[in-house]
């Protein structure tokens, strides 16, 4: 881990995953940590910058997803 980072989510030299849930929300996640229930890997593992770029490119609408998608019909 980067010696200046005290939080694994801020480690600029770490390996990360991009997670996504059924509501279409994204999360930058440390690669060493278990994927929490209700989330799946959408991108990675990769460097923090690549994962952050993936989120920025793909999570373009921060509003709520349509009702069917929230019920689990979101395409993977």
Number of helical segments?
Answer: 2
Portion in beta strands = 25-35%
Sequence of secondary-structure elements: EEEHH
Structural class: alpha+beta
Helix content: 10-25%
Low-confidence stretches: none
User: How many DSSP-defined strands?
Assistant: 3
List keywords for this structure.
alpha+beta, single chain, three-stranded antiparallel β-sheet, 76 residues
Short précis:
This protein has helices at residues 48-58, 67-73, and strands at residues 15-21, 26-30, 39-47. By secondary structure, it is of the alpha+beta class.
Please characterize this protein's 3D structure.
The chain has helices at 48-58, 67-73, and strands at 15-21, 26-30, 39-47. The radius of gyration is 13 Å and the shape is globular. By secondary structure, it is an alpha+beta fold. A hairpin with a 4-residue loop joins strand 1 (15-21) and strand 2.
């Amino acid at each position: 881990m980067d010696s200046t980072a005290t939080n694994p989510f801020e480690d600029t030299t770490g390996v990360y995953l991009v997670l996504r849930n059924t509501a279409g929300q994204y999360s930058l996640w440390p690669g060493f940590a278990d994927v929490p229930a209700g989330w799946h890997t959408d991108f990675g593992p990769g460097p923090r910058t690549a994962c952050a770029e993936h989120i920025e490119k793909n999570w373009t609408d921060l509003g709520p997803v349509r009702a069917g998608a929230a019920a689990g019909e979101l395409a993977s």
